[in-house]
Q: What sequence folds into this?
C-alpha cells in the first residue's frame, strides 16, 4: 500500500500521455533514483519502499521500456512466460511451442521461473516493472489468484493456458477437460471395466476438478455407482502417482483399470503394477492424460488423451500478439477451446476373464 503519496507534478508525463518515472516517484513519495533501483531489482532498497514503488507502478500502469520502444518506432513485442510446472514433459512441450511461435512472429519471449508462494508476487511485479507487453501463464500459474490479481490490477494483457475456469479479464486457451475425461472413462466402460480407479490432479488447479467431474459423469451415464474408494489423490507428479496407485491397488477389491489425470501419474501407476507382478494391460489397464513425450517412452506405451500442448502454447503467443497489435489489450478478450483426441496404444485392454473358483464337493 502507498502511504501519504505526493501528488504528481503539474505538467508531468502523466498529464500529457504515458506515465513517467517521475510520476511513479511522486506517487510513491521517493526519488526517481529509488524507482530505478526497484525496477532493476537492486538489493539496496528497504522492503517498505519497494512495496510502495511497486504499488505506484501498478496503479499508474507504468511501463518504461514500452514507452521507449514506442518513441523509437520499434515494433517487436516483449512477452513474458512465467512457469512453475512439476511435469518436465509438459513444460518441455509447452516451451517448444511458444518459442517456435515467438520466432515466427518476431516476438521477444522472456521466460522466467515463478515458484508458487511469496516469490511469485515479486517475480510478477519485477516483470511488470521491466515494461513487458503481455504475459502467458501455463498451469499451475494459470490458476494462481495472487499472480492474476497483480496482472489484472496493472492492466497487463494476459493469456491463461489450460485452466478449467478462465477469469473474464484474461484471454484463454484450453481444451474441454471435462469432456475429455468423460470420453476416456466411457472408453474404459465400453472395454468392459466395472471398477475403474481414478487418480486426481493437483486440487489447486481448476482443470483437475473438471477431469474428476468428467469421470463421474461417465459413470452416471452408464448407470454405475461412484465409489470414493476408487479415487486417490494426486498432484500431477510422478511421486504422487506412485503413492496413489499403491493406495488403489492395496484395496480388498482393487480396480481392473486406473485412469490417471496426467501421463506422469499414469507412468508411475505402470511402474507400481510391474513392481506388484501385474501385467499391463493383462491384469491392469492404465490410461493417462496429456499425450506428453513420456506416454511413448515407457512400456507399454500409454493410452491417453492427447492435449495439444505445443499447439496451445503457440496459440497463446499468437492470440496475445494479436491483442496487443490490435491495441485492444485491456478490452476484448477471447476464450479459445482446442480439440482433444483419445489415443489408443498398448496399455489398455478388456478385463481378463478368470475362470470361476472351483468348489469342493
A:
Amino acid at each position: 500500500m502507498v502511504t501519504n503519496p505526493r501528488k504528481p507534478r503539474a505538467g508531468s508525463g502523466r498529464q500529457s500521455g504515458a506515465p513517467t518515472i517521475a510520476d511513479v516517484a511522486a506517487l510513491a513519495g521517493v526519488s526517481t533514483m529509488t524507482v530505478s533501483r526497484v525496477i532493476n531489482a537492486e538489493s539496496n532498497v528497504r522492503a517498505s519502499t519497494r512495496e510502495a514503488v511497486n504499488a505506484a507502478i501498478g496503479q499508474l500502469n507504468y511501463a518504461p521500456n514500452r514507452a521507449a520502444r514506442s518513441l523509437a518506432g520499434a515494433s517487436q513485442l516483449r512477452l513474458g512466460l512465467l512457469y512453475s510446472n512439476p511435469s518436465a514433459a509438459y513444460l518441455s512441450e509447452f516451451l517448444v511451442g511458444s518459442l517456435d511461435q515467438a520466432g515466427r512472429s518476431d516476438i521477444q519471449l522472456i521466460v522466467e521461473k515463478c515458484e508458487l508462494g511469496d516469490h511469485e508476487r515479486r517475480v510478477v511485479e519485477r516483470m511488470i516493472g521491466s515494461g513487458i507487453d503481455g504475459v502467458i501463464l501455463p498451469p499451475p500459474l494459470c490458476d494462481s489468484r495472487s499472480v492474476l490479481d497483480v496482472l489484472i490490477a496493472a492492466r497487463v494483457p494476459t493469456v491463461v493456458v489450460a485452466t478449467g475456469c478462465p477469469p473474464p479479464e484474461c484471454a484463454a486457451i484450453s481444451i474441454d477437460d471435462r469432456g475429455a475425461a468423460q470420453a476416456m472413462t466411457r472408453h474404459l466402460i465400453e472395454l468392459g471395466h466395472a471398477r475403474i480407479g481414478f487418480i486426481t490432479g493437483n486440487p489447486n488447479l481448476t482443470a483437475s476438478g473438471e477431469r474428476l467431474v468428467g469421470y463421474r459423469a461417465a459413470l452416471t451415464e452408464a448407470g454405475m455407482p461412484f465409489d470414493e474408494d476408487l479415487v486417490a489423490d494426486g498432484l500431477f507428479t510422478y511421486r504422487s502417482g506412485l503413492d496413489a496407485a499403491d493406495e488403489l491397488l492395496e484395496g480388498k477389491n482393487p480396480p481392473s483399470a486406473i485412469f490417471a489425470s496426467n501421463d506422469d501419474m499414469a507412468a508411475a501407476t505402470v511402474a507400481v503394477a510391474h513392481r506388484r507382478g501385474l501385467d499391463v494391460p493383462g491384469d491392469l489397464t492404465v490410461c493417462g492424460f496429456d499425450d506428453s513425450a513420456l506416454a511413448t517412452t515407457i512400456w507399454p506405451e500409454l493410452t491417453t488423451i492427447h492435449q495439444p500442448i505445443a499447439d496451445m502454447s503457440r496459440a497463446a503467443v499468437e492470440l496475445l500478439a494479436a491483442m496487443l497489435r490490435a491495441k485492444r489489450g485491456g478490452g476484448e478478450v477471447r476464450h479459445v477451446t482446442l480439440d482433444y483426441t483419445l489415443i489408443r496404444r498398448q496399455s489398455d485392454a478388456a478385463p481378463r476373464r478368470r475362470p470361476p473358483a472351483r468348489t469342493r464337493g
